[in-house]
């Protein structure tokens, strides 16, 4: 690739003076591309060995269960369940890394169709409820009839990440709401909770890879630290933006704002 990549900056001084600066960022651009490819390749290569490990661990643990778990020394039994837990964690991490690098590499935009958001939110709600196991109350509110034009897989993964976070980071008895509603610029998906919220100093950095407010607690929740980075990239590919509002002690609200150009008329009911 012989292209030269230049970055221009124009500064205005008073009425008639301009300063034009050009910077050669070819090398920077190439390095960034190499980093992305490297992460994508490594994550892809790690998937097969992890699948084999997970498969054998599953076989061992069902063998142990069938032959009486008490015949295995307790520390081996503990070790086995630890190995399974950590293998699952590594698989989640590798899948998220692969998804994130695909989102960064692909231009996207081909498999975009109008999505019925009531059904999509309802299906995310069911998954979040399984994760919550009754600890939170999760509801869906639909105040917008238009459909969102986008990739179903990506949009679902963005909303799921937000909903799962709301479940993971709020205490028992909290309320989580998934909403599709009109917005002055188009329409938005909101995921709101009334949990402990996030200290505003952390908000600007939340979408960075592996950025976590509380390292210990986040690792224990099973998150990968990549959830909000994935959300950010999905939104970028859909011309949308993420707004995060929170007051500590009063919960958090994550809003994905989609422009009007991304909306399609409601599905017409077939007339007789
Ligand atoms: P992960 O959840 O895997 O750690 P994310 O990128 O999804 O990574 O989230 C980054 C951090 O943002 C989390 O570690 C958590 O500290 C914070 N966070 C996200 N959502 C919420 C929420 N609804 N309430 C409180 N904190 C949150």
From TrEMBL:
<keyword id="KW-0067">ATP-binding</keyword>
<keyword id="KW-0418">Kinase</keyword>
<keyword id="KW-0547">Nucleotide-binding</keyword>
<keyword id="KW-0902">Two-component regulatory system</keyword>
<keyword id="KW-0812">Transmembrane</keyword>
<comment type="function">
    <text>Member of the two-component regulatory system PhoR/PhoB involved in the phosphate regulon genes expression. PhoR may function as a membrane-associated protein kinase that phosphorylates PhoB in response to environmental signals.</text>
</comment>
<keyword id="KW-0808">Transferase</keyword>
<keyword id="KW-1003">Cell membrane</keyword>
<keyword id="KW-0592">Phosphate transport</keyword>
<feature type="domain" description="Histidine kinase">
    <location>
        <begin position="41"/>
        <end position="262"/>
    </location>
</feature>
<keyword id="KW-1133">Transmembrane helix</keyword>
<keyword id="KW-0813">Transport</keyword>
<protein>
    <recommendedName>
        <fullName>Phosphate regulon sensor protein PhoR</fullName>
        <ecNumber>2.7.13.3</ecNumber>
    </recommendedName>
</protein>
<dbReference type="GO" id="GO:0016301">
    <property type="term" value="F:kinase activity"/>
</dbReference>
<keyword id="KW-0472">Membrane</keyword>
<keyword id="KW-0597">Phosphoprotein</keyword>
């Amino acid at each position: 690739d012989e292209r030269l990549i230049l970055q221009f900056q124009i500064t205005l001084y008073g009425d008639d003076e301009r300063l034009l600066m050009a910077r050669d960022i070819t090398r920077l651009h190439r390095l960034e591309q190499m980093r992305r490819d490297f992460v994508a390749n490594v994550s892809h290569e790690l998937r097969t060995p992890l699948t084999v490990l997970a498969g054998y661990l599953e076989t061992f643990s069902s063998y142990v269960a069938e032959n009486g778990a008490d015949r295995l020394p307790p520390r081996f039994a503990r070790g086995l369940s630890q190995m399974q837990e950590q293998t699952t964690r590594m698989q989640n991490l590798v899948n998220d890394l692969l998804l994130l690098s695909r989102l960064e590499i692909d231009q996207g935009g081909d498999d975009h169709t109008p999505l019925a958001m009531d059904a999509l939110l309802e299906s995310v709600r069911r998954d979040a409820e399984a994760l919550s196991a009754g600890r939170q109350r999760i509801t869906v509110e639909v105040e917008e009839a238009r459909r969102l034009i986008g990739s179903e897989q990506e949009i679902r993964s963005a909303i799921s990440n937000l909903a799962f976070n709301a479940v993971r980071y709020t205490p028992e008895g909290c309320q989580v709401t998934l909403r599709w509603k009109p917005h002055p610029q188009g329409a938005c998906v909101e995921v709101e909770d009334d949990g402990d919220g996030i200290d505003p100093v952390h908000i600007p950095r939340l979408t960075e890879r592996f950025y976590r407010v509380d390292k210990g607690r986040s690792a224990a929740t099973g998150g990968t630290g990549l959830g909000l980075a994935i959300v950010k990239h999905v939104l970028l590919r859909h011309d949308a933006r993420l707004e995060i509002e929170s007051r500590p002690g009063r919960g958090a609200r994550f809003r994905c704002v989609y422009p009007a150009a991304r909306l399609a008329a409601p599905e017409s009911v077939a007339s007789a």
